[in-house]
Amino acid sequence: MSAAGLVIIGSGPAGVAAAEAFREHDADAPVRIMTEDPDPPYERPPLSKEYLRGTTDDVALHPADWFAERSIELHRGTVTELDVTDHAILLGDDRMAYDALVLATGAAPRPLLVPGGERALSLRSLTDARRLREAATGAKTAVVIGAGFIGCEAAASLAMRGITVHLVAPDTLPQEKRLGSDAGHRITDLVTATGVRYVGNTSVREIGSHSVLLDDERTIEADLVLAATGVTPNSDLARAAGLRVENSLIVVDGHMRTSADDVYAAGDIALAHNADAGRAIAVEHWQDAADQGEVAGARAAGRTVSWSGAPGFWSDIGDATLKYSAWGDGYEHSRIVDHDDGFTVWYERDGVLVGVLTHNADDDYDLGGRLIVEGGPAPTPVR
Known about the structure:
Layout: E1 6-9, H1 13-25, E2 31-35, H2 50-53, H3 66-69, E3 72-76, E4 81-83, E5 88-91, E6 94-97, E7 100-103, E8 107-109, H4 126-137, E9 141-145, H5 149-160, E10 164-168, H6 176-179, H7 181-192, E11 197-199, E12 204-207, E13 211-214, E14 219-221, E15 224-227, E16 231-233, H8 236-240, E17 245-246, E18 249-252, E19 263-265, E20 270-274, E21 279-282, H9 286-300, E22 312-317, E23 320-326, E24 333-338, E25 343-349, E26 352-359, H10 362-374
């Protein structure tokens, strides 16, 4: 590899994992991470939990000297264009050459398109988390919009700070469409156990200075509002450069290679082929982003590796930990099994296990992950 080396756009888990994996296989070529984030690389999962609760300020992904020890350079700036023909990125009028390029630009919070939507805070970056935590310091009431895992985590964390929190979502139960009613009831119990009030079957019509108006004409007092309403992949650079993009995701093979030579993509922006699934899968999980980044970095260094394993993640709602592993493209049947202090939900399609959700059932989670990859049935009948 020439002096141009590896350039990575994005300092999240995929980007940093790509840099680390590349350096493990190539000790000499330059490695540069381009980022717009003002903070050194950090862990995102604690932002909606321990950090928001005020129980930790340490969210650094690595110690300060970790990057210097590995000769990984961090550059702050905005990449304005990709020149995949001449192997360069453009930062305004400046050009930076690359031998290999990894796109790990992640995703951005989806704006809340209602009157007053600009008043709602978001929670994606450490900058967002600081703003939210500062707002929570003087707040007595809060509304969290969206009952995905981030919304549930953040609502619980705010309630644990003594704030009166309403969690507003269009579903009767949190994540009912994705995980089913049995799981939705259990998640509701975990959320409300922290003091959160769940408000389902409605949407936000308008956000005022200290209140939220719902579609059903109810008004909820809110000193702060958090919109946890999903994200949009940051794939505009790739699309403008002519890379293959489908539904805002960059299409890559199992080695994270895009349609352009020596260009890879990983994380929230990637539609990646999974070797065990035998098809392309989109994921938005921290660990999977890191796994994909590791593949991209190793492949850029000349190693033959591919992405495999069933995607999964953990979520902490208050003091309760949920673990979920699934291919993520739906199921036909589900069955919940209650335990003394937890539960397991098994998900099947065509008689094959495609997902598992657990609370205090680590053995089931580990077994489920293996069965999902093996393509076997659930250990208990699912009908």
